[in-house]
Amino acid sequence: MPRDHLVLVGLMGAGKSSVGRRCAELLGRPFVDTDELVVAMAGIPFDDLWAAEGESGFRARERAAVADATASPVPLVIACGGGAVLDPDNRRALRARGFVVWLAASPTVLASRLAGDDSRPLLAGGDRATTLTRLADSRAAAYEAAADATVATDGRTVDAVAASVLEEFESCDA
Ligand code: S3P
Questions:
Q1: How far, in Å, from the CA of 117 to the mean position of ligand 1?
Q2: Which whole-number Å values give the CA distances from 49 to 28, 45, 60, 114, in the listed order?
Q3: Tens-digit pLDDT profile for residues 41-77
């Protein structure tokens, strides 16, 4: 099985979906967002799913979505939910079938990009920059273990980040 998917990982607000969509357009291949796939497979809205099943139910469904996306015989661009790489099975599947790029951003930039967006339950209540700093610290090792390449996103446009991602992807011999 070739490692032909392009996979984007990183914290909430890193730009995985917007950069992933742009990369998919430029590569002329389908785009899959694991959060959207979870919702499509569950057949209920994200908020209802999280409320009914909690984070552990969501993570089990996310594992199934990662397995489903990575098994695609059609080369995809896959944007992973920010916590997907915490699961060793997900990391294995993503690396086995894809070239993984970590979109890195500082917690303050992430917090400003996510201002006014209430769609992330892990950011509910509390100071967002503080929560994002804690998540950045606790997840850095998992992103590093998952990633074949890292692209910085602070102060950069979607097009500029997508260009850097594709440069990394096209220079790899996956
Ligand atoms: C999460 C990130 C979210 C979504 C869920 C949990 C996380 O996806 O999967 O709210 O644990 O970081 P995005 O990274 O696309 O926002």
A1: 12
A2: 32, 6, 12, 21
A3: 999 999 999 999 999 999 999 999 999 999 999 999 9
